[in-house]
Amino acid sequence: MSVRYALLGLLVPASRYGYQLRADFEKATGSTWPLNVGQVYSTLARLERDGLIASSGDDGEGHVHYESTAAGREEFAAWLNSPVSREAPPRDELAVKLAVALTLPGVDVHAIIAKQRAATLEVLQGYTRLKRQGSAAAEGDAATAEPATEDVAWSLVLESLIFNAEAEVRWLDYCEARLKRLGRGGLALAARPARLPALPDDDGADAESPPGLGRPESTPSGATPVDSETHPQFRTKENADD
Question: How do residues 141-185 score in pLDDT, each as one tens digit?
């Protein structure tokens, strides 16, 4: 759904053709989520079918340009002004993997957690390196011009990826600490609730929630905040010598 509205939004200020839209989308997001041309044009076809965009003609070079309609601009504005729904979160493969692993005999859940933590920390290291490179480039350009809008947009996307990776490592630390307190790599099914506790009501009343859902609280017992420089499994030869 985000691709649909992203492409619609890119057509609000000016008409564009498919390849331009793909390039502008990837420039804004730092190619974090690459689009193929087929996806772009299939999305444009649906937007045109729904009356949100319209073809503005051929530019003489074989490129069909599209522009937003009044209905499209209205729908895009409504999307911008509406919070992203978190009521039905997408399935998290890692959470599903651990949940299933805990129900099976002979599965070393601690090993699964350790492997995933190492993989996530490696990715986090790459994000941190990109952030440093971007900061260094920004400092070099600071004397001559303001940061480009695309650079700011990309830095926000990168920070989102960093925060998500850090949150995953903290959650894995929490899972490992909880299992160690239980002294086992699995939980008895009878000890588990039949369903997740309710989320906070719309009026803001607190309700018991599992880690990561409901109101943000302090770091769970047994887990510590992630420092991408000092986490024991994040150390590499490059920064171990510091």
Answer: 555 555 567 778 888 989 999 999 999 999 999 999 999 988 754
CA-based end-to-end distance of the chain: 45
User: Which CB contacts under 8 angstroms, 24+ apart, belong to 30-38?
Assistant: 30/154, 30/157, 30/158, 32/157, 32/158, 32/161, 35/3
From the CB of residue 105, how many other CB atoms can be counted at a distance below 10 Å?
6
CB 66 within 8 A of CB 44: yes
Cβ contacts of 140 within 8 Å, gap of 6 or more: none
Residues 6+ apart with CB under 8 A from 226: 124, 166, 169, 170, 173
- Residues 6 or more apart in contact with residue 108 via CB below 8 angstroms: 185
**Does the model's pTM come out above 0.70?**
no
CA pair distance 175, 212, nearest whole angstrom: 12
CA 85/CA 50 separation, integer angstroms: 22
Tokens of 139: 């400092």
